[in-house]
C-alpha cells in the first residue's frame, strides 16, 4: 500500500464544535508536507485522523488506492513521532529502536537497528540509556524507532517543540536530510512558520479548521493569498490602498496620496480597495532624496521612529506621513545602524515585491 495521501471532505466535530471543517488535501507520495497554523486551528486533529487515533465525523482518507478512513491505527502503514519521545528508560538506545520490530515477532533486527542508528547518526550511542542522551538525540531515537517499522507515511506532531532554539534549527536540517534519504512521505505539524518553511516542500496554512492557502514555502511568503497568511508568515507591512490604473502587467496604486506600483504576478486583487503589502527585507532604506537608479521605483518618505540591532540585521520602524509604521530589515554588513530615530528617510522597493490582497479582509 503506497501512493498519495488524500483527504476528501474530511470534517471532525466535537459535539457542536467543528475542529476540522470540510478539508480537501492531497499529499504527494514522498513529499515533505507541513501543516502550519496557530494553536487550536485543527492541525493535530487532522494528523490524528490520518493516524487513526480520531475518527472523522465525515469524509474519507485514502492512501494510494486504499480507503483507510476506518482502519485500525496499527493496521495503517503510518507511524507517528510525538513531541514527547516516550522512550523506555530502562532499555538501551538499540533496544528502544528494536522494540516495535521485536514485538511484531521479527527476530534478526540487529542489522535494521544498526542501519536506523546510522541514518540518525547515533551509532556510537547504541548501548547508552535515554537519560544519557540530549533532547535532540532522544528525538532522533524516537525517529529511528518510528522509521524502523517501514511506514509509508511518517506523521510528526510538533516533534521539535521541546528542544531549545539552536537544537531545533539543527534538527530541522537533520529531519529534512533524513526525509530526503528515506524518500517517505513526511507530514509535519507545527505552529512555527520558520520551521515549516525550512523543511517542507509544500505547506498548508490552517486557520479555524480550514486551509487558508497551500503551496511551496516561497509562494506562500512572496504571494500570500490572505491577510491571515501574510501576517502568519512574517511581517507584511499591510497598508490600505486603491487601484487607480493598469499599464500592461503593472498596477498603479494610490496609497494615502502616494503613487505606488505593483507587478500583477502577486496581485490577489486588482481593482478598487486593496491591502498593499511588502516584506520588510525587500525594502531598501536610504537617505532622504538620495540619488539612485530607478529600478527601485516604489518610494515613500518617512521618519525613523525606532532602531533595533537583531544580529544579522537591523530592524527599523519608519513612521509614514499618514501615521502608520512600516518595518524594514537591513542586512548588517559593517555599516551598522546607519540611521537614528528622527532621521528623515526614503523607503524603496521593486514593484514586483508589492503584493495586493482583497480589502474585504481584516488586516489583523
Ligand atoms: P495546538 O497547536 O494547540 O495543538 P492544533 O491546531 O493542533 O492546536 P487541535 O488540537 O487539532 O489544534 O484542536 C482543534 C480544536 O479542537 C481546539 O479548539 C481543541 O480545543 C478542539 N479539540 C481537540 N480535541 C478535542 C476533544 N477531544 N474534545 C473536544 N474538543 C477538542
TrEMBL record:
Pfam families reported for this sequence: ABC_tran, TOBE_2
Q: Pinpoint the ABC transporter domain residues.
A: 5-233
**Where does the source fall among the domains of life?**
Bacteria
SMART domains from the xrefs? AAA
* Task of the protein: Part of the ABC transporter complex PotABCD involved in spermidine/putrescine import. Responsible for energy coupling to the transport system.
Q: Which PROSITE patterns match?
A: ABC_TRANSPORTER_1, ABC_TRANSPORTER_2
Q: Which GO terms describe its molecular function?
A: ABC-type polyamine transporter activity; ATP binding; ATP hydrolysis activity
The family classification in the record reads: Belongs to the ABC transporter superfamily. Spermidine/putrescine importer (TC 3.A.1.11.1) family.
Write out the GO cellular component annotations.
Answer: ATP-binding cassette (ABC) transporter complex
- How does this chain assemble? The complex is composed of two ATP-binding proteins (PotA), two transmembrane proteins (PotB and PotC) and a solute-binding protein (PotD).
Per the UniProt entry, the Enzyme Commission number(s) are 7.6.2.11
Q: What is the protein's given name? A: Spermidine/putrescine import ATP-binding protein PotA
Q: Which UniProt keywords apply?
A: ATP-binding, Cell membrane, Membrane, Nucleotide-binding, Translocase, Transport
The first-level EC class reads: translocase
What catalytic reaction does the record list? Answer: ATP + H2O + polyamine-[polyamine-binding protein]Side 1 = ADP + phosphate + polyamineSide 2 + [polyamine-binding protein]Side 1
